[in-house]
Design goal:
Keywords: Oxidoreductase. It comes from Streptomyces chlorus. Belongs to the aldehyde dehydrogenase family. The chain is an alpha/beta fold and 462 residues long. The chain has 2 domains: 268 residues, Aldehyde Dehydrogenase, Chain A, domain 1 (3-Layer(aba) Sandwich), CATH 3.40.605.10; 180 residues, Aldehyde Dehydrogenase, Chain A, domain 2 (3-Layer(aba) Sandwich), CATH 3.40.309. It has 15 helices and 21 strands. A 7-stranded mixed beta sheet has the order 15-16-17-14-13-18-19, with helices on both faces. Helix 8 links the parallel strand 11 and strand 12. The chain is globular. The termini are far apart. Bound molecules: NADP nicotinamide-adenine-dinucleotide phosphate and magnesium ion.
């Protein structure tokens, strides 16, 4: 057990203002692995002041210098990749292989992409008799969740730094250790004091103080829709920019003629990965009635194969929440074909990979984000019916379409109210804009669209 007493503010590890700490628990075995300070309003204020003080100089650096820092940051993350993976496994419970190939690897790619974009993005352009300057928004307050704990910070910090902004991060209370590691990496990469700051703490205390701080120009939040709604309201009242990356209930639409076995297997893997704790997970599988029984059988078999390869959920509260949803699914008349509400192990926050058949669009498990390894398989009559079901939630973050003919899949995808659609198993693209339609959020992350979130424009007329 390690007791950390500092927070990274103004380029140094400073003791917290108050005495409270957060226990970091490994959800695989319930062991307390570390404590970190629970930051207060005072700590947030110190961090925002440090970020403000650092802003003018950082905003004035040449983009090439910012690109260099981000390239060095990427190299430091590469050098520390194993340590990052071990840390995510310890505090989130992710299986070691997933920690390596996703939790540690994706932030490296994203940091690298912003090193490139900082060097190449046209921060100045001409239109008519004007020069348009793309300038940093200012101080960013970032509030992040635990499910992809490093990725979600890097997806904000890298573009913010590339744009010339400075940033204060409040990571999730469950996963502060990998956030501390990132602060060390920033330091090692030579990012100037005050450009990146980290305040660990509780959402309603440190998170709220950051969202409300008048010294913050842009609040970028990833997490639940309930908290996002409040943060959006606070930001609007202060006329601050806000970016919200919220929940999802994404549809995996399997059109007749698609490779059914592949579509089902990839779909099940998509939901079970990271124990279902993925905002963009395809948690609703939509299958034509003629192929429905076969798809259900395939999905149940695929889920059953997961066994010990699935990690625990992040904490006991999430485990209870997910088991509650499974019980609700049963109570509302859905048919369990794999898994169920009983904990598969005595120790740790595990939930069995679960598949429900005979799910109808109005059921709770077809409407609400469960954030666990739970798949709902729904039946549709024809394409119009599939589209109605796919678009029939308040969310619109991601999705998938499978068809024999790519053009048919694309035509369907165009009619989906959602921010990303993978066609016939298309791969994750770290440069593609990621973000929500409808209540899945406001704004986009990653690639050039993610960079422009951190820029504001000024026009000079000649
Ligand atoms: P959450 O409460 O929204 O947490 C996200 C972040 O917001 C954390 O850093 C949290 O701090 C902070 N926060 C909480 N209350 C706040 C407040 N009043 N003001 C400012 N910041 C605040 O999410 P959760 O409770 O961890 O998870 C609940 C559900 O949210 C999940 O089951 C899932 O459905 C959804 N979720 C979605 C995503 C996503 O990527 N879209 C990610 C995580 C969760 P603490 O860590 O101290 O709570
Ligand atoms: Mg919370």
């Amino acid at each position: 057990m390690k007791a950390y007493d500092g927070m990274y503010i103004g380029g140094a590890w400073r003791p917290a203002a108050g005495p409270d700490v957060i226990e970091v628990v490994n959800p695989a075995d319930g062991q307390v692995i570390a404590t970190v300070p629970a930051g207060t309003v005072e700590d947030v204020d110190a961090a925002v002041r440090a970020a403000r003080a650092a802003l003018p100089a950082w905003a004035a650096t040449a983009p090439a210098e910012r690109a260099t820092r981000l390239a060095v940051l990427r190299d430091v993350l590469v050098a520390r990749q194993d340590e990052i993976a071990r840390t995510v496994t310890a505090e989130l419970g992710a299986p070691p292989k997933l920690s390596q190939t996703v939790h540690a690897a994706v932030p490296i790619v994203v940091a690298g992409s912003y090193a490139e974009l900082a060097a190449t993005y046209p921060f100045e352009e001409r239109t008519g008799n004007s020069t348009v300057l793309h300038e940093p928004v200012g101080v960013v307050g970032a509030i992040t969740p635990w499910n992809y704990p490093l990725h979600q910070i890097v997806a904000k910090a890298a573009p913010a730094l590339a744009a010339g902004c400075t940033i204060v991060v409040k990571p999730a209370e469950d996963t502060p250790l990998v956030a501390r590691l990132l602060a060390e990496a920033m330091h090692e990469a030579g990012v100037p004091a005050g450009v990146f700051n980290l305040v660990t703490g509780l959402g309603p205390v440190a998170g709220q103080a950051l969202a409300e701080h008048p010294g913050v120009d842009l609040v970028s939040f990833t997490g639940s829709t309930a908290v996002g709604r409040r943060i959006g309201a606070v930001a609007a009242a202060a006329v601050k920019k806000v970016a919200l990356e919220l929940g999802g209930k994404s549809a995996n639409v399997i059109l007749p003629g698609a490779d059914l076995a592949r579509a089902v297997n990839v779909g099940v893997a998509n939901v079970m990965s990271n124990s279902g704790q993925t905002c963009s997970a395809w948690t609703r599988m939509l299958v034509h009635r003629d192929q429905y029984d076969e798809a259900v059988e395939l999905a149940a078999a695929a889920a059953a194969k997961y066994g010990d390869r699935i990690g625990p959920l992040v904490n006991a509260k999430q485990q209870e929440r997910v088991r509650g949803y499974i019980e609700k699914g049963v109570a509302e008349g859905a048919r369990l074909v794999a898994g169920g509400p009983d904990a598969p192990r005595e120790q740790g926050c595990f939930v069995s990979p679960t598949v429900f058949a005979d799910v109808t669009p109005d059921m709770t498990i077809a409407q609400e984000e469960i954030f666990g390894p739970v798949l709902s398989v729904l039946r549709y009559e024809d394409e119009e019916d599939a589209l109605r079901i796919a678009n029939g939630t308040v969310y619109g973050l991601a999705g998938a379409v499978w068809a024999a003919d790519e053009a048919q899949a694309v035509a369907f995808a165009r009619r989906m109210e959602t921010g990303q659609v993978d066609i016939n198993g298309g791969r994750f693209n770290p440069l593609a804009p990621f973000g929500g339609y409808k209540q899945s959020g406001v704004g986009r992350e990653l690639g050039v669209h993610g960079l422009t979130e951190y820029l504001q424009t000024k026009s000079l007329q000649f």
